[in-house]
Amino acid sequence: MILKIEQDLSRFKQIVRGKIKEELRKFITRGELIGKQGKKFISIPISQIDIPRFRYEDRQMGGVGQGEGAVGTPIGTDEEGDGQAQAGNQASDHILEVDVSLEEMAQLLGEELALPRILPKGSDRIVSSKTVYRGVRPSGPESLRHFKRTYKQALKRQILSGRHDLARPIVIPYGEDKRYRSYRVIQERQPRAVIIYMMDVSGSMGQEQKEIVRIETFWIDMWLRSQYKGLETRYIIHDAVAREVDAETFYHTRESGGTIISSAYKLALKIVHENYPAAEWNIYPFHFSDGDNWSGNDTMECLSLLEKEFFPLCNVFCYGQVESEYGSGQFLKDLKDRFSEKSEHLLTSKIEGKEGIIESIKTFLGKGK
Amino acid sequence: MLTPELEKWRVAIEKEARNQGLDFFETVFEILDWKEINEVAAYGGFPNRYPHWRFGMEFEHLSKSYSYGLSKIYEMVINNNPCYAYLLHSNKLVDQKMVMAHVYGHCDFFKNNIFFSPTNRRMIDVMANHKTKIQRMINKYGYNPVEAFIDICLTIENLIDYYAPLIKRQRDEKHSQLGDEDEENTEKIRIKKLPVQREYLERYINPREFIEEQQKAAETKRGERKKFPEEPVKDVLAFLVEQAPLDKWQRDVLSMIREEAYYFAPQAQTKIMNEGWATYWHSKIMTTKILTDSEVIDFADHHSGTVSVGSGRLNPYKIGLELFRDIEDRWNKGRFGKEYDECDSMVEKLNWNRNLNLGRKKIFEVRRIYNDVTFIDTFLTPDFCLEHKLFAFDYNRNNSTYEISSREFQAVKKKLLCQLTNFGQPFIEVMDANHGNRGELLLFHRHEGVDLRVDYAREVLKNIFTIWKRPVLVETRMDDRLKIFAFDGKEHKEYDTKEGA
Predict the structure, then answer these.
(1) Interface pTM (ipTM) of the complex?
(2) What is the rounded CA–CA span in Å between residue B129 and residue B141?
C-alpha cells in the first residue's frame, strides 16, 4: 500500500539532500563521516531542520522534574522517551542523523565537484558471470523447493484424477509434484576495477598527513565504488620496504625510517601481475607521500617503472603529495620534470592541508578516466 | 473495523465507561499497522493533511524510533465528533483493551472540558478541505512558492491568543463600529471661540493665529489617538491576515494555519489533565471490570510503563493521574476549605476524615472547568510535592549541566506554572503597525523572566518581513536591558533602548 505520507517524506529527503550538499565540502575536509559508514548507508549528522519560532532561551528556562537527589544534583538531559511517544516540551538541539545510501552520497559528491562519469576501458571484453534463479524444474535440493508451485501441481493432479474434494479441500503433494527453483548462469559484460593505495609511512609522515590521506581515499573510494560494481581495493604501506596490509593497518601504522618508493611500486606491480590482468581490469594505483625519497637513483628507478610498467597497464596513475614540514617534496618535482603536465597516464596533485583535499579529489577524478 | 473479539470488548468497555459517568461522542476505532499508525501520527492524528515536508520528517523520526525499538505509539485519538481512535495492529489484546479504556477517557475530556468547547468538532473534514485547497494552490502557483509560504506561516504559528476563543474582546465590537469612526475623523475639528459682544473685538479676543494653533494641536492629538492598533494585539496571526499586504491565496494559507493552530491549542493547554484523566480511567475501568486474571501482570507492566518517571523528567501521565487521585481523596475526606487549612495539629490533619465522599463529583467538576495552569495552581499542594519528590531545576553555567535548584513548594510551583503559562511560549504582541510613521511593524515581547533565543528570533523576524514587506522589529529584554531587534529586508540590526520604541 502506498502511504499518503510518501510525498511529504520524499520532499523531506530532498530537503535533507540539499542540506547535505550545502555542507558537503565541510564534511569532506573534516573527515567526520569516516567510521559512520555502514555496508550500504552512511549516517550523516546534520543540524536539525527546524521551523524557527519565537522561543525561550532554554538555558534560562529550567523546569520541573521528579525523583531523588539533593539540591545541586545534576540531572540527565537526555530526551529519550520511555516507551511512550510523547514529546518533551523542551526540545533540545537535536542533531539529526540521516542515513544516505553510499550511491546517493557518491552522486552528491559527483554533482558538487562536477566529476564526470568514468568511461571504463575495454568493457566489452570484460566478462563476469553470475547465477540467477529463473524457472522451476522437477528435481533439485530440498532447500530450493518452491512451495507454491509444488502445491499447485498437487492440486492440478488431484483435480485431474477427480480426487479433489471441494467440501474438504486438502492438498497433499507427493514426490512427483515437487518443484524446485532452477538457476542459470548468465554472462555479463561488466567492467571491473581495482584500486591500489600506496602510502609512505616513513618518519616524516605525521598524524595529520595520514589523516589527510585517509579522508581523501575515503572519498575517492566512494566515487569509484559508485562507478564500478564490486570494486576491489588493495593497500600497500612502505618506508624502506613495502608490504601489503589491510585497510585498518593502512590508516593507523606509523613506521619510521627511510623511504624507498620503488619498493612500493614493485610490490604493486607484483600484485597486479598476479591478480589483475590488465585486459579485464581497470587499474587505479594511488600513491600518497610527502615527496621524500632516499636517493636520486631510486627516484630514477621509480620513473622508469612508471613509464615502462605502470602506464601501459593502468587507467591512470595518481600521485598525491601531502605537504609536510619534514618532507622535501622533491619527488613531485622529479615527476613533473620527467613527464609533461598533460600526460595521459599520470595525475599529480599537491595537497597542502585539509582544505586542499577537495581540489585534489577533483584533479584525480575530474578527468573521467 | 474491529475484529469480533475486540468489538466485544469495546462494547463492554464503553458500557463500563458510561456506567462510571463518562460522557463522550461516539468513538470509532480503526486498526492500523505500524506504518499506517506512524503516518497518522505524523499527521497529528488526522488521515489527511496538506502536503508539507515536516510531516515527512515526523514520519521518518517515528519510523526510525519504532524500528530501533525506542518508542512505539500505543494510542492515538482525535478530538472530533465522532472521535477517531487508532489501535496498533500488533498489540496484544490486553494492550488494546487498555488503550480503548484510555481513549474513552480522552473522548470524555474532549467533549466536556470547557477549553475544548470552541474547537471545531468536524476538524477531520476541515483538515481534508485544507488539503484540497492547498493542493489546488500548488497546481496553480507551483509547489515551491506555496511550500515556502507555508514555511513562513509556520514560524509564527504560535503567535495566537490562546485564550481568545473563550473571551469576547473589546476589539471585536470596536471593529464593527469602524465605519462611524472613519466618518468622524474626516470632519474638521472646530475650536471653541470665546464669546464676543463687539464684532470689532473679535480679532483681539480670538486671534486667528491662536485658533489655528489650537486646531493644529487638536489634530495632531487625534492623529496620535489613531495609533494602529489602538490596543496591543495578541493574535498576531489574525492581525497579519487582516492587515498584511498579501495575495488572496496567501491570506487563505495564513488563516488555515491559524485555524489549525487554534484547534490544537487546547490539547497543549490541558496536556497534564487530559493524560491524567485518561490514565485515571483506564486504570479504573481495567481493574474493576475488564481485566481477566491472566492479563493482570501484563496490564500492570504496561500501566507502570505509562506512568514511569524516566531520568527525572516530569511525566504528564503520572503527575495528572496522581493529582486527580489526590483531589478525589481530599474531597472524599473533606481535606479542604478554611477549617482544614487553618488546622495546626499535624496529627489531626493526618487523620482528617469527614466522610464527605465528594471526591468523584469533584474530579468531574475539575475536568470540566480547569486547564493545566489553573489545575496546578489550585490543586498542587506542598504535601503532594513532597510525596512525589518534585523538584525545580535550572541550568548551571559554571559546569554547564542542569541541576536540581530547589525542592521548595513555592519554587516548584512557580517553575511549573511558568512552564505551562502560554504553553511555555513567549508572549508576543503587535504594538504598532505604523512604527516611526514608516509602516514598520513593531512587536513587543512581554518579558516574564526568560529571554528570547536570539538566533530563532532573527529568523522569525526575517520571515515576518516577507509577509509584512516592511521592516519588522521586536522589543524585548535581554540580560535585563531593553533591546530592539530589527530586520529591514537586508540585514539584522539590534540596538539598546532606554524607554522602549
Answers:
(1) 0.77
(2) 18
